Amino acid sequence: MSEVYAARRTRLRERCNAGGSAAALVSRAANVRYLAGAAPRDAVLLLGKREDLLVCAVPPDERPAEGRPDETLRVHVLSSPGGDPAVAAADLVAAQGADSVAVEEHHLTVARHRAIGSVAPGLRLADLGGAVEQLRVVKDEEEISCLRIGAEIADQALGELLESILVGRTERHLALELERRLVDHGADGPAFATSVATGPNSGLRGHAPTDRRVEEGDFLSVCLGATYHGYRCEIGRTFVIGTSPADWQIELYDLVFAAQRAARESLTPGAAYRDVDSAARHVLGSAGYREGLSPLTGHGVGLEIDEDPQLAPAAMGKLDACVPVTVEPGVHLPGRGGVRIDDTLVVRPEADGGPELLTITTKELLAL
Amino acid sequence: MSEVYAARRTRLRERCNAGGSAAALVSRAANVRYLAGAAPRDAVLLLGKREDLLVCAVPPDERPAEGRPDETLRVHVLSSPGGDPAVAAADLVAAQGADSVAVEEHHLTVARHRAIGSVAPGLRLADLGGAVEQLRVVKDEEEISCLRIGAEIADQALGELLESILVGRTERHLALELERRLVDHGADGPAFATSVATGPNSGLRGHAPTDRRVEEGDFLSVCLGATYHGYRCEIGRTFVIGTSPADWQIELYDLVFAAQRAARESLTPGAAYRDVDSAARHVLGSAGYREGLSPLTGHGVGLEIDEDPQLAPAAMGKLDACVPVTVEPGVHLPGRGGVRIDDTLVVRPEADGGPELLTITTKELLAL
């Protein structure tokens, strides 16, 4: 794996040098992990002028879920407690003779940025911007394999829940049970706070579980994901509780399903982000649902659950192969509830069979 | 409750004006909640020149766990998705005729700070520093009452765990079960990631649960807390698994207990933070444990689990009455395990009975 991390750092260094900085200081945890193999608490990665260093406040943890620092990388642990690794790294890079270093201005606070500036007054601080986030968009097969295993775990956890009695249980208990099952099946942990929404709450994106209990006739929408070796996936499904769905429930479900399928089918290399969004939005809009929709139809996933690209009306850019994204349109009718259907897929060329569906739980409307 | 939030804002406004700023823009979530009663996602509080405003990206959630915005405060929800409430607030305060606004430089990123500066070029951005964090140190009785209920919930969850069979279960499962029980008993959720540490892991501060199973003869150390109405408390205990603890286990336990008691007894109004720390550290040091100790003996708790003050060797300042803190010394012997004992207490004058212990689970060495 060492070569992978070294190659990623080489790509970043090239971008940095092209931008006029000899060195870079990466502080955002997911970016540090991407380039160094692990991101111990508060650690920063220094792409130095002479040497790369992982600068840590605490020694790296050895648990597999936390990753393992690339062995070719020197690890520097601060000797005094309470020190800021970013400030120490600036000091180290100045000592290496660098006259400028690019930092992540979208992550560093103003106060930390100032502290970095004062420890090495001769050092010019440039902006690295989202350079690492951009490198992270296209995944390699090792990364996709972690997402695939995470998706299998989420499918298993969800499948087991469907076999249990649901009526009378609260949203909060169902969410906790799903999270326990994720861990049972080998997840590092949940990829994000599990959402369980019943009745009038169903169909709300990111609904935080309440003490409402599942009732006969409810829509039940669930959104969960597993983290596996740091990689986070997402699945969302909506079910109906009881023997026979009402007509409005069947209609709404079919509509959201059609919107979700349209967006999934538009996932091809070269497709504009906004076109994927509008594929789903057009189906919902044709049926009269334009207001109150989620501002996005999907987003990238990886070391964070919400990464670039954003599949949204104003997003600029086009999909590449090997970009994993969610497709998660939904409709919520205030006071009645609604439907969300959410998959994680990997963009693949048509010659390779088109988009690869990672979350394979059925999307038929199940009556539970 | 409205008067409470208005009074807090008045105190902050006085500090701000004394610092030369007519307005303040508070962005750190716990600070926003403290001053406004609620902190919807990404919301900022504007202490304006003419009017105070809660500026939100999404409408406030109505769940009790999230708090409820102070009714005397105007809530402004951004109309376009993806906007930054901090930038919008800067625009609003400039429109009110303010020429400067104090911002939280320890919380805002460099990129957000720049965006705020560019939307209102005539507006001078000053630094609010930790002014709100300082106001939050001393709690009122309403806040302490939330911590007390949270502590009761944590005591209950821990008590139930002790009645169950532990041998053979993994750290991760025990942690998940504790978190479920916290929610069962009415917590908003866990106050922080529950730590369960067995055998060689026991006694490690902040140990992330692994798949190691509880074995006969182990030390088992547990650290958990409940969030109740936003307030977070903490309790940690160490037990021994099996019928009779080994001599080294009894000795180590008694030592850490003595250190913890010494620190608890030093919690009086006017005591220096560092003296509380050294009370515990001195007991451990006299027995030869000086290296590898945690850098702090305790810390404040409230809307965040780790607040000011820090009870540490280099901390400056003195305790006031009505400051809730943890007291959590520990010793870990590499390869063997160790002991941590952690309580949440409120500093009270001797005339009121001295420090108020919120976490009342026994600190006898229980053999389970």
From TrEMBL, chains A, B:
<dbReference type="InterPro" id="IPR000994">
    <property type="entry name" value="Pept_M24"/>
</dbReference>
<dbReference type="InterPro" id="IPR050659">
    <property type="entry name" value="Peptidase_M24B"/>
</dbReference>
<feature type="domain" description="Creatinase N-terminal">
    <location>
        <begin position="8"/>
        <end position="138"/>
    </location>
</feature>
<feature type="domain" description="Peptidase M24">
    <location>
        <begin position="146"/>
        <end position="348"/>
    </location>
</feature>
<dbReference type="Pfam" id="PF00557">
    <property type="entry name" value="Peptidase_M24"/>
</dbReference>
<dbReference type="InterPro" id="IPR000587">
    <property type="entry name" value="Creatinase_N"/>
</dbReference>
<dbReference type="InterPro" id="IPR036005">
    <property type="entry name" value="Creatinase/aminopeptidase-like"/>
</dbReference>
<protein>
    <submittedName>
        <fullName>M24 family metallopeptidase</fullName>
    </submittedName>
</protein>
<dbReference type="InterPro" id="IPR029149">
    <property type="entry name" value="Creatin/AminoP/Spt16_N"/>
</dbReference>
<dbReference type="Pfam" id="PF01321">
    <property type="entry name" value="Creatinase_N"/>
</dbReference>
